[in-house]
Design brief:
The chain is globular, with a radius of gyration of 22 Å. The protein is mostly beta strands. The strands form 8 sheets. It has a 5-stranded mixed beta sheet, with no helix packed on it. The longest helix has 9 residues. It has 2 helices and 33 strands. The protein folds into 2 domains: 355 residues, YVTN repeat-like/Quinoprotein amine dehydrogenase (Methylamine Dehydrogenase, Chain H); 35 residues, no CATH class.
């Protein structure tokens, strides 16, 4: 049986817990919502921030949840413009630990693969490595060549030995965690690098930036192996295929969206799709690597047969842009979120719509059938806020 609840904020981020049973969502309302991914029950609301939540990540054992925003407030483990990184225990019984050290907005947080450390990157030329148990700052990683480097996203290598961080105008940086030394910096992309992704085997790094380029780097020494050109606008996301042989990149501009599948070794453009009316905001591969899923600025979610470049399934999932796509750990469910305040759950294999997650709106289930003294515009507003009207009864009364 399908079910529906409602939220009143734009949803910007999603993250499945490692066991696939809980789905976390964050958005404009400055609250992280926890949902039962199987029956859609809204189990918990985690408050504490006063601004939007743009990123969520669970620790590998599922005991901690990291969230990031721009307001300075946080839940469990998070960072923001108050320069603090905070770790909260999920049970709420232990006081939060405030990790102090950043001097400016903290833009990214990421758990190490083993869950022992938390990395944070900020606009103060610092990537800090914290002991997640004690809260001790273990390492401070900086750009030694520029004192005002602005760091954005941060990502751990699969083995947890290295950290990569994207920056604005100062390239991509990779550090060795144990020594704190910067191994290399890549400056092939002169504009803001939005996304960085490690290959599944940890041998390569891919980055996409505002200049429309996708770079492939040798992770060990920063050798620029390939620079893929072909995008007409910004690259909004990069995603490795499960076997690491292909790289997908998506983005677009005012003239429309597109995504490309590249041969990661030769740099050959294998497939190109155009989305004339939508920027490609999100990409994710199916576990088999045979299907690529895309989310667009037009609210659509598409399943693509990569080999035949054929759209297998098209779902108009959202009113407004799709912001994120995530596959559940059990590889059975796809979650999408968008500007319409909704989380949609789909059967990953068939594309069948399973559930819609929303929290109650102000007038949820209020029956306004036959209401008088309000205009059509006012009634439309009430319905948008959750009120219901029996269309059959209303039509009969109008006929009478």
């Amino acid at each position: 049986m399908l079910w529906t609840t409602w939220v009143t904020d734009n949803i910007e981020s999603l993250a499945f817990a490692p066991d696939g049973r809980t789905l976390a969502s964050g958005g404009d309302a400055a609250i992280v919502q926890l949902w039962d991914a199987h029956n859609g029950t809204h189990s918990q609301a985690l408050s504490g921030q006063s601004g939007p939540v743009f990123a969520l990540a669970w620790s590998p054992d599922g005991s901690l949840l990291a969230s990031g925003g721009v307001d300075g407030g946080i839940r469990l483990a998070s960072a923001g413009s108050n320069t603090l990184v905070t770790i909260w225990d999920l049970d709420g019984l232990t006081p939060p630990r405030l990790l102090r050290g950043h001097r400016s907005l903290v833009f990214g947080v990421a758990w190490s693969p083993d869950g022992r450390f938390l990395a944070s990157s900020g606009l103060d030329n610092a990537v800090r490595l914290w002991d997640a148990t004690t809260g001790e700052a273990r390492q401070i990683l900086r750009d030694p060549d520029h004192v005002n480097t602005l760091f954005y996203g941060v990502a751990w290598s699969p083995d947890g030995k290295f950290l990569a961080s994207a920056s604005y105008h100062q390239g991509m940086h990779v550090w060795e965690v144990t020594t704190g030394t910067r191994r290399w910096v890549g400056r092939a992309q002169p504009t803001r690098i939005r996304r960085v992704a490690w290959s599944p085997d940890g041998r390569y790094l891919a980055s996409g930036s505002d200049d429309g380029s996708v770079c492939l780097w040798k992770a060990s020494d920063g050798t620029l192996l390939q620079q893929f050109q072909g995008h007409r606008g910004m690259v909004m996301g990069v995603a490795w295929s499960p076997d690491g042989t292909r790289l997908a990149s998506g983005g677009g501009s005012r003239s429309g969206g597109e995504f490309v599948v590249w041969d990661a070794q030769s740099g050959e453009c294998l497939q190109t799709w155009s989305e004339p009316n939508a920027i490609v905001n999100a990409l994710v591969w199916s576990p088999t690597g045979e299907v690529l899923l895309s989310g667009g600025s037009d609210g659509s979610v598409r399943w693509w047969d990569v080999q035949h470049r054929e759209c297998l399934v098209l779902r108009q999932g959202h009113q407004g842009a799709v912001q994120s796509l995530r596959v559940s750990p059990d590889e059975k469910t796809l979650a999408s979120c968008g500007d319409d305040n909704a989380i949609q759950l789909w059967d990953l294999q068939s594309g069948e719509h399973l559930q819609t997650l929303r929290r109650d709106r102000p007038y949820e289930r209020l029956n306004i059938t036959g209401i008088r003294g309000v205009t059509k515009a006012q009634k439309a507003t009430l319905r948008a806020l959750g009120a219901v009207e029996d269309a059959a009864v209303s039509s009969t009364r109008q006929a009478l």
